[in-house]
Amino acid sequence: xxxxxxxxxxxxxxxxxxxxxxxxxxxxxxxxxxxxxxxxxxxxxxxxxxxxxxxxxxxxxxxxxxxxxxxxxxxxxxxxxxxxxxxxxxxxxxxxxxxxxxxxxxxxxxxxxxxxxxxxxxxxxxxxxxxxxxxxxxxxxxxxxxxxxxxxx
Amino acid sequence: xxxxxxxxxxxxxxxxxxxxxxxxxxxxxxxxxxxxxxxxxxxxxxxxxxxxxxxxxxxxxxxxxxxxxxxxxxxxxxxxxxxxxxxxxxxxxxxxxxxxxxxxxxxxxxxxxxxxxxxxxxxxxxxxxxxxxxxxxxxxxxxxxxxxxxxxx
DNA sequence: CAAAAATAGTTATGTAATGTAATTAAATGC
DNA sequence: GCATTTAATTACATTACATAACTATTTTTG
Lengths: 153, 153
Description:
2 copies of one chain form a homodimer. Chain A is 65% helix and 7% strand. By secondary structure, chain A is mainly alpha-helical. A two-stranded antiparallel ribbon of chain A has the order 1-2. At the A-B interface, helix 1, helix 2, helix 3, helix 4 and helix 6 of A face helix 1, helix 2, helix 3, helix 4 and helix 6 of B.
């Protein structure tokens, strides 16, 4: 006999990759909206936060930290510079290199944006206990490392 | 005195969103490469797997399950159909709708691709215990739900 | 029952993230 | 000193994803 069952995605839910994508998509959307009023995107916020936390950082180091191609970083730094949040200055030890620093405005925007992000995160992680968060973070880190290792083989 | 410290992304690692993005990016890259030899992308594999698991599924239901716009699904179904992995047939209860079914070849490719994915997942999750995986999956699900709820407000 | 609203699949179009290749200038290594 | 490497950039292609509009139906409703 025909049993009409509701279609579902159980077969995919067994894969961590699927859950990861679903969660990331939803989180990305929420965080993007949280950063809208600061005229920041997730990637420009990340760059700004790292420049604030690591004054004197060079673009190539930043690209390395954020795991993105140097060529892709250029435009994002352009945006941050045009908004007056960071400065690109010449390195005195390597004339090819630049030195990135946040402006006062950049540090201020970073502080406020970080608060907004933290609020969004709290709203999204509200049902996740501290113990679970710690497992989550650790597992994500392990997965990232293992996946990256697989890729570079 | 100047203490030259290595630049790092500690400030961002505190956010679940950052870890999520990093992990997803690495996992996406690995899974994409694992599916390459089947001429499948992550999204077409997902669609195929859901059609195999839910015979008779309609495109709009599939889009709903995969959380993507119907318009974006069209091209992916085109690819699967052109590869002979699925069939689109007319619904007999609703002349607007289509009914999706996998072909024999589709089921076979799905089976093999699923094995490949499972192997990749095992390699990526090797250092994550079963208990941790269970927490991970649950936490991702909670986060996805909470983030989606925030978005639709 | 006829008109209005909603739904299914599609097409067209725009945006954003990411990757690759090539260029220029400077530094490094042999 | 010359070949190689590195830093930042430019140009370009690809892919994922969102939005709006269109056609053919079905459903709702007055």
